[in-house]
Amino acid sequence: DYLEDLAQRVPANKTLIFKTHGWMADDVAALIDGYHFKAFTSFRDPRDSALSTLNMGAKERARGDTRWFSEIEKMEQLKNAIRSQWKNTLGWINHPKVLTIPYYLIAGAEHSSVRALASLMGAHRFGPLAAATMADRREATAEFNKGIQDRFVAELSLADLKLTQELWAKEIAEYEELSITIMTRLGHSMLYQSFSQMRDKAIRKRLE
């Protein structure tokens, strides 16, 4: 009810942006179905998500913060959290009116990601300009952390790399299937092939 009331209060010439890591609740799905809200989601390899969470935990401990992240020091602690996060992400990906942008596209074809978002917002004419502006201000964009795909391959310890493949075999397989499907749909199958082949080759080398 709160979201629907808020949607009615936003002036027609204004845009209100929400960021969430939550699940696709039924009432939110209904608002998207009814075109009250436009939504997009991104997804990345669960192993990269785990590494990012570990990185955040280290940062928060260094700052003296006491949020949930600060308690995460070992990969084993993320077993259920990564599974839950992936399940939540699938809820958004599976909604037919939600634009899904793979992290591979953000990392390898940033301009295409920005143009896709501009089109979703009904501002496709401004897509090229927005993409150019994003490229110029990339380093100053606080939410754009590193923009590097598959960091986990080189940055995780060998033990943790092996562990991730045991903990999230199902999620990794689902991620792989979605990646090739959506990257192909967006016209970037070659980019997917390039990134995934580099990743798999590097993993094999580390496991030798």
Set down the secondary structure blueprint:
Layout: H1 2-9, H2 26-33, E1 39-43, H3 46-63, H4 79-93, E2 98-102, H5 103-108, H6 110-120, H7 127-136, H8 152-155, H9 158-167, H10 169-185, H11 189-207
Parallel strand pairs: 1-2
Helix pairs in contact: 6-7, 10-11
Task: Write a structural description.
The protein has 208 residues and is mainly alpha-helical. Helices cover 61% and strands 5% of the residues. Helix 10 (169-185) packs antiparallel against helix 11. The radius of gyration is 18 Å and the shape is globular. The model has no long low-confidence stretch (mean pLDDT 88).
Q: Specify the helix fraction band.
A: 55-70%
Radius of gyration: 18 Å
Quote the average pLDDT: 88
**Share in β-strands:** under 5%
Poorly predicted segments: none
Strand order of the largest sheet: 1-2
Structural class: mainly alpha
Per the principal axes of the C-alpha atoms, what is the gross shape?
Answer: globular
**Largest sheet composition:** 2 strands, parallel
Distance between the termini: 55 Å
Number of distinct helices: 11
Number of separate strands: 2
Order of helices and strands: HHEHHEHHHHHHH
Q: Can you give keywords for this protein?
A:
208 residues; mainly alpha; two-stranded parallel ribbon; 2 strands
